Amino acid sequence: MRNLFLFLLITTTCLNAQTKMSSQEASALRALVKKQADITKTISSDFIQYKHLDFLDNDITSKGKLAFKSPNTVKWEYTAPFKYTVLFKEETLFINNEGEKSNVDIGSSKVFKQLNTLITSSIKGDMFADDIFDISYYKKDANSEVHFMPTDKQFSEFMKRFEIIFNSKGDVLEVKMVEPTDDYTRIIFSNRIVNKNIPDAVFAH
């Protein structure tokens, strides 16, 4: 029984352990992601979003499509379980909730403007700003996982950290936004297409 307990303890520890990158590995990852981000003008992708709330037994799951156009136009089109569109464009947040439209001026709000910038950067993966974040680098199987902890006190009041998983090419596979309560939103991307023309009509509001 004692040997079984030790085996389970060691196995659990190994499964949960994160392998930290060396400074050379972190530098190589930054260079790879930066190179990829610099040549990325458009992204279209499917996504699955998991919203984790501590008081719920199960995560809230949504599906949809992402469209991104450089420098900072982003459209999240939720298709299931309901239709809902969020469009960041020209310092304005446009919302379409099953036909009911509204918009918010984010240009006049430092926090919302910063959030828009970070969301855009997280999609491309180019968030490596040491003056904005404390950054930690980890290996995760064949991928890389990077944690971004905001240093701005006002911003950290509603965002504890970003976690981004990159594949070996430097593409973003997953983004996780963790709130100070440890509730989080986890977005997994698939069928990613880069630098294919996206018609302006996609970003109409």
Textual characterization of the structure:
The protein has 205 residues and is of the alpha+beta class. Helices cover 24% and strands 43% of the residues. It is built from four helices and twelve strands, in the order H-E-H-E-E-E-E-E-E-H-E-E-H-E-E-E. The longest helix has 16 residues, at 23-38. It is globular and about 50 Å long. The model is unreliable at 1-16 (pLDDT under 50).
Number of helical elements: 4
Please give the largest β-sheet.
12 strands, antiparallel
Instruction: Report low-confidence residues grouped into runs of 5 or more.
Output: 1-16
| Percentage of residues assigned to helices | 10-25%
Strand order of the largest sheet: 1-8-9-10-11-12-2-3-4-5-6-7
Order of helices and strands: HEHEEEEEEHEEHEEE
User: Distance between the terminal alpha carbons, to the nearest Å?
Assistant: 64 Å
Q: How many beta-strand runs?
A: 12
* Helical/strand content category: alpha+beta
- Which outline best applies? globular
Q: Beta fraction of the residues? A: 35-45%
Q: Quick check: average pLDDT?
A: 85
